[in-house]
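Translate sequence into structure tokens.
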Amino acid sequence: MRKSTIELPSLTEILRDNPGWLDEAVDTSEAGRIIGFPACTLNTWRSRGGGPAFIKVGDHSVRYQRRSLFRFLSEHQRLNTSDPGQQR
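Result follows.
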């Protein structure tokens, strides 16, 4: 049985059709899906630090710009296990 694959659009294609896509703000659940962590981890990072930058409006509304989420992932890229990564 052969599995079918879904062709995903490239980032260039997404931005061509939706120029403001990277700057749109998403909720915590969507942010977690984007970076591959559960929403509870993002909640912990917000209180303790160490996670992606977020936007807080009022007392309860928290959003993440997609650009910040991709930047967070990029900052944590490593080439090998001894690579210390970017120094903050």
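Note: The longest helix spans residues 39-48.
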